[in-house]
Every structure is written in C-alpha cells, then in structure tokens.
Amino acid sequence: MKPGRFAEFIAIDWSGAKGERHKGIAVAAAKGQDAPRLVSPPGKHWSRQEVRSLIEGLASNDILIGMDLGISLPFADSDAFFPGWDRTPQDAKSLWAMVESICENDPNLEAGSFVAHPEASRYFRHSREHVGDRFHHPAAETREGRFRIAEQAQRALGVRPVSNFNLVGAAQVGKSSLTGMRMLHSLQGVVSVWPVDPVPPSGPVLVEMYTSIAARGGGARKGKTKLRSYEALNAALGKLGSPPVGGAGDIDDHSSDALVTAAWLRKIAHDPAYWNPAGLTPKIARTEGWTFGAV
Fold this sequence. Notes:
Nucleotidyltransferase, domain 5, 8 strands, 6-stranded mixed sheet, 10 helices, 295 residues, alpha/beta, two-stranded antiparallel ribbon
C-alpha cells in the first residue's frame, strides 16, 4: 500500500442494541496533526442509518474507517460458519447477504430476526439459560464458543475478545457484528472492506477494529483498556503522538474509545506489517476477515 495513502482517519464505536438511536455509538475523526475530535450526530444520538449515510458521503475520499465490530463469524475451525446447516454461506459477503435477507423487515438495521431464526439461533448463546445446541460445536477450543483466527491473534496480544456467537454480557459483540453486517452488505460498491476486499489505490477503506488494541497501543495496561477520564485519554493520546483533547474529569468510554482509536489508526496505518499479519491467508480474508492491529 502506498505510504500516506489516507488523509483522514475515522473510528466508530458501534452498537447492536434495539431502537433507532444509541448513546453507545460514537464517531471520532483524526486529520493532519490535529487532536482527534468527536463528530456530532444529526440528533441527540447517532442512528445506525445516519452512520451509514456518513460513510456513503465519504465515497470519494481517501479515508480509513475503523469500526468496532466483527465483520464475519468463525469459519476456519470447521470450514463453515454454520456446520450442519445446508444453507451455510461460503464467504463473508454471502454471510452479509444472508443476514440481510433474513432481517430485511427488521427496523433500524437490527438483526433480531437472524438470532431468532429456527436454524441460525442454534449457533448462538442468547442468555445464561438459553444456549443454542450448536454453540458448543466440537471445533470450539473452549466453553467460550468458537473464535476466528484473528481473535486468536488478539488473545496473543493480551486482550480478551468474546466469540461473535455470544450475545450475552457487556463485552459481547455478536449483536453489533450482525447489525454491522447488514450495513456492510448495503455499502458494497461504496467502500472497500479490508481484507474481504483488496485495498484499492484510492477511495475509502473500512477495517474491523477492537478498541482495546488501540488503547493498549496508547499504553493502557492489560485489563485496563477503558479510558474513563480525560486525563487517562490524553495520556494515551500523548503516547500515540497526538495532541490532547480539551476537557477534564469523566468521559464516557464510547467517546474515549472512538477518540483514542482514531489517533491510533493515524499512527499505525502506514506500517505495512498491519496490512500483512502472519495468520491472514486468502481464504481467511475471504471468509473470516481480520481485525486491524492483530499482528
């Protein structure tokens, strides 16, 4: 990839919750040498459709967009997303299309119909009491469920991702990943999604991110990656070579996640090592995708 390819860096802390607008969505941008800044939503809080419109408006820009979600599901462990189901898709884009097809009548880019589907639901942990009979597939290494190769690489970095088939708990990203897949399906032809798509010579590129990796890049300690004060945030920004943001006292972790990740993307995006992680093969790229920064 050409050094200096991107002129701006946007980080999006995403949400898979029900409803139209979400205080859990935050958008931050970093440009030039300026401090990262929060991008204000059109209303009190962002909707998923508004984030999609924001990305659509960047179609001609050389921007790197990081989103805190899983762009796919585990595949490599059993050569299938949904082993035992004859409708299982063969690659990530087909998975996005399947989620959209099942959820096309769900409002607000929600994905409730998918996790309630008679067959798809069998692969998810829905609550402590309701665990699909195929969540603990024999290929799963632990009782935590199945993981992608990229998530194994994340664990090697000292962070603790949760299986995308898990829909339970504050750390789960299953719901946000499924809602994100609906959006990614609708954005095909507008933005390239690395590594499912190759990086084009110009235009926007979207990558999956894990905000804990960005916080660790800013010096956050293992298990302490939520930056809940301006002081902690600005300490991390300083380690990333960024000017501080204005403010003092408490900050919500959705905003701080987006701000530190925008600065982190700006710092590391031009390093070829991040675009060529050791575990990323063409088949993994096509099926599971990857988490940017898991090297």
